[in-house]
Amino acid sequence: MKHAWKSMTLTERDQFEKDGYLLIRGALSQEEVDFYTAAIDRVYETAAAERSKEGSLHLLSAVRNCPELVSMLDHPAVFGYVWSMLGWNAHVYHSHIDVHPRITERKPFWWHWHQDGGRQNREIETDPRPRLSVKLAFWLSDVSEPGRGNLTIVPGSHKTNWLPGPPKRDVEWPQPPGAIQVTVNPGDVLFFDRRIWHARSDNYSDFTRKVAFFGYTYRWITIRDEVADLPQQPWWDTVNPVQRQLLGHVGDGSGDHAWGHYPETTPLYGELSGRGLLDSSIPALIP
């Protein structure tokens, strides 16, 4: 299935602003699901040292560790949601591959609820905090029922700075009011605001949870992923200019830098301009 590049609709934008997330059903074809799943399975087999004692894998720097995922960075079925919110001066600052097989024994309680961004949520003074980043989650396994390691979210919580919780993370505490487990099929993609309060639930099912996450932010925010050595990788020559920008390597020496003062030398700006997608009603798309 081929998708033309397009921006999010006003209806989608309104829903995203209200709920803090959008679920894009069937964004990946079955062939893509099979391809990405096989790639992650190969990484899982070779990453024994990084697995937990239960066999789960949370591996940072998704493309560096699994180059086959590079086409997820700007996948045309969902990439429009990213640049519609952040504009063209963006990159991937944080990504990870998650594989969670069945847990055979109940784990001790732990309060996993959080907003993405780490210290941003302690050090930024505004209420609500600024969005700063958005995330795409590519689901590759059947998580269509609760109890399969579903991502749990509180819809509409992205404009709430603090979530009432326990005095310590290991103190038994009820789920936040309004929390839901997101149920998804292989090929579905979840697009969400980094501020939405969320937590991964434990997987006690016979299904292995497999998902790849990509967090996008402005290029003036430092990348967390390991990307410095990417130009030396044997597959680097196959990466297109927009993907290189998203992986933190951009510019031909003619002016581009992370502050975005030279849009004409920023690949995503050029791509959107060439496709007639620089909608001036969206501030982040204005040169």
UniProtKB/TrEMBL annotation:
On whether Oxidoreductase is a keyword of this UniProt record, the answer is yes
Keywords, A to Z, come to: Dioxygenase, Oxidoreductase
One of the entry's Gene Ontology molecular-function terms is: dioxygenase activity
Highest taxon of the source?
A: Bacteria
Spell out the Pfam families in the cross-references.
PhyH (PF05721)
Q: Which SUPFAM superfamilies match?
A: Clavaminate synthase-like (SSF51197)
What is the name attached to this protein's record?
Phytanoyl-CoA dioxygenase PhyH
Where is the organism placed in the taxonomic lineage, from the top? Bacteria, Bacillati, Actinomycetota, Actinomycetes, Pseudonocardiales
